[in-house]
Amino acid sequence: MKKPNVVWILTDDQGMGDLGCTGNDMVKTPHIDEFYNRCVRMSNYHVGPTCAPTRSTLVTGHFANSTGVWHTIGGRSLLRKDEWTIATAFDEGGYETGIFGKWHLGDIYPYRACDRGFKKSITLGGGGISQIPDFWGNDYFDDTYWVDGVPQKFKGYCTDVFFEEGIKFIDQNKDKPFFCMITPNAPHGPLNVPRNYNDMYKDDTRVPAHRKRFYGMITNIDDNFGKLINYLEENNLIENTIVIFMTDNGTAGGFNMDKQGNITSGYNAGLRGSKNSEYDGGHRVPFFFRYDALNLNNGIDENNITASVDLMPTLLDFCGVDKGNHTFHGISLKPLLCNGIVTDRAVVTDSQRVPHPIKWRKSAVMRDSWRLVNGTELYDIDADRAQRNDISAEHPEVVEKLRADYDKWWELVSPKFDEEIPISIGEHENYLTIHDVRNAEDKGTYQQAHVREGAIAEGYFEIQVEADGKYEFKLRRWAREVPHKIKEGIDPKHNDIEFAKDCIIESDHRYYLGGVAIDLTHAHISIQGHNETKEIGDDDEYVSFILDLKQGATYLETWFSNKDIEKMGTYFVEVSKI
């Protein structure tokens, strides 16, 4: 029998309450709702409270903090080179592998999706369209994405493109076993959406303007999901294909609440918290699993605690892919799904988002119906879904047990906290962005809007020089895709991008319009004992430094300055070995 195929849909910033099938009577998701009735619903499924950490656990079977990914920026969204990824595993197991959409575990060699086992990759840059590592001027419509590491322009709305390319990949490989990840950046902000999807909600007075766009993005996902399922059915692929629909963290736009935590508009499936929260609303997400060949398609709920670290071992088990000597922090869920075998365990999630992890920070320990939050608050989720009633004083023995579970987990994930995650130079030309600089004060500069505004940030890159030799460094204020001089701004009346017709663009146009001029006078570089400065000419698009470097680990710092600005970190640095 042919090995099972895998089609895995992972959406961005969509929470438990952002689907019709989970109780939201405002959002329109008929195709996912139908799928909900033909799958196993992991109703107690937990991820990380933010995107890159979740993705690191999903593709490694290891807790995020142990993989080096405990942030979404600052060099801590780069997945350690020694991690064995799910794509590499399936590639080694004889599968065709592809990803279409958001990767967010590194945009530079050797951390790109195309370096980590995906034979076909079409990805945006960073954690979302219009972030600094993304192609300059992308706005969700007619954008440029990286195809196996090379930029290529596409026609259409981002989610449509990612699903269309995913279906093309399946069609090209339907006679072979395939592993296909479709990972739209929607409904992550900025909330840009085709006008017709926004207009589906224009007459619903319960839905404020920003949520009309948010829901419109979700309904667009739903339409594309319906097309995908239709394709699988019409081509007789559905029987032998594992199809997963899930999201990466709690909602970012699904509800508003008052100071007391009461929801004033929107819906959150009765959960407390949203994206980046240690409460269930931050990390308890939809996870729908369908596999017709084993009759896992009958619309039932599985309520035992499961987690993102379980996905990789589960899929390898179902697909018969040899894991060799590799181990996982998660477990295969095949015994649970097929035979009802439950594993007694605790699961921990947290949200660090700091340069170095802090014990107990924004954490949740989960065992059975218990939730220990931040090491002190205790909730019984079955009796108190909204986590309103802290019962720690009534159950000190439970608190003690869960704290012990956390200590074991911390011991498991912490050994590599001080290890660096360097960017390699010398084997490939690399294009560094300030998105990945290390900064002790965590002053995040990651949006193209920050570049346009001239945000002041500084930090250093962790570097591995792969070979002795001469290296050229080109320091840029503006992305290399746009021919702007370092000192000049961008006139919003003569914008550097064009908006697509029939679209609704986030009302905050700072993402896309203009850019301030800054009279920067000097460029600076520091690496391996080289500390050099050059004047910036009026016509310079970049300043070049050529330096002799030795093989080994080091730090790179680059910045601009003038009489008023002591240090303004360089937003873009091209590095090549001569």
Can you characterise this structure?
The chain has 578 residues and is of the alpha+beta class. 20% of the residues lie in helices and 24% in strands. It is built from twelve helices and 30 strands. The strands form seven sheets. The chain has a ten-stranded mixed β-sheet with strand order 7-6-5-4-8-1-10-13-2-14, with helices on both faces. Strands 20, 22, 25, 26, 28 and 29 form a six-stranded mixed β-sheet that branches.
Question: If strands are numbered along the chain, what order do they take across the biggest sheet?
Answer: 7-6-5-4-8-1-10-13-2-14
Amount of beta strand: 15-25%
Helix-and-strand structural type: alpha+beta
Helix content: 10-25%
Mean pLDDT: 95
Q: What's the shape?
A: globular
Q: Main β-sheet, in a few words?
A: 10 strands, mixed
Q: How many β strands by DSSP? A: 30
The number of helical segments is 12
Descriptive labels:
12 helices, ten-stranded mixed β-sheet, 578 residues, alpha+beta
